[in-house]
Specification:
By secondary structure, the protein is mostly beta strands. Helices cover about 0% and strands about 50% of the residues. It is built from no helices and 6 strands. The protein has a 3-stranded antiparallel sheet with strand order 4-1-6, with no helix packed on it. Strands 3-2-5 form a 3-stranded antiparallel sheet, with no helix packed on it. β2 (about 15-20) and β3 (about 25-30) form a beta hairpin. The chain is globular. The model has no long low-confidence stretch (mean pLDDT about 95).
Length: about 60
Amino acid sequence: PDHSHESQYGIVLEGQIELTINGKTKIYSKGDRYFIPKGIIHSGKIFAGYADITLFNEKDRYNKR
C-alpha cells in the first residue's frame, strides 16, 4: 500500500520491482538503483526472484536482537 517514511535508497541485485514514487510508476531490474526522498508517498510490487540491498535513513528502523 501507499506509505512514506525517511529516505530510502536501493540497488536491485536480481529480478524486478515495480515502484510507484510520487505518482510515477517504473519497473527496476538487475543493476538499477532507486531513491525515494523523505516523506514521498510510494508503493511497490515485488516479482518472484527479487533481491536487493535497501538502505533506510532511519537509525531506529529495526529493533536490536
